[in-house]
Amino acid sequence: MITVSVKPLFTAIFTLSLFLAIVLLSPSSPFSSVPSNKQTGKSDIWGVKRLVEWRPCKWWIHRPRIALSAESNGYIRVDCYGGLNQMRRDFCDGVGIARLLNATLVLPKFEAAAYWNESSGFADVFDVDYFIQQMDGFIKVVKELPPEVALKEPFRVDCSKRKGQFDYIESVLPSLLKYQYISITPAMSQRRDRYPLDAKAALCQACYGALRLTRTLEQKAAELLEAIPKPFLSLHLRFEPDMVAYSQCEYPGLSPASKEAIEAARGDRKPWTGEAARIWRKRGKCPLTPNETAFIFQALSIPTNTNIYLAAGDGLMEIEGLKSIYTNVVTKSALLSGEDFLNMHGNTKAALDYYVSINSDSYVATFFGNMDKMVAAMRAYKGLHNTLFLSRRAYAELTSKGLDGKELMQALWLAHKEDFAMGRGSALPDCFCDLKS
Ligand SMILES: *[C@@H]1O[C@H](CO)[C@@H](O)[C@H](O)[C@H]1NC(C)=O
Ligand SMILES: *[C@@H]1O[C@H](CO)[C@@H](O)[C@H](O)[C@H]1NC(C)=O
Ligand SMILES: *[C@@H]1O[C@H](CO)[C@@H](O)[C@H](O)[C@H]1NC(C)=O
Question: Which residues form a coiled coil (predicted)?
Answer without folding.
Answer: none
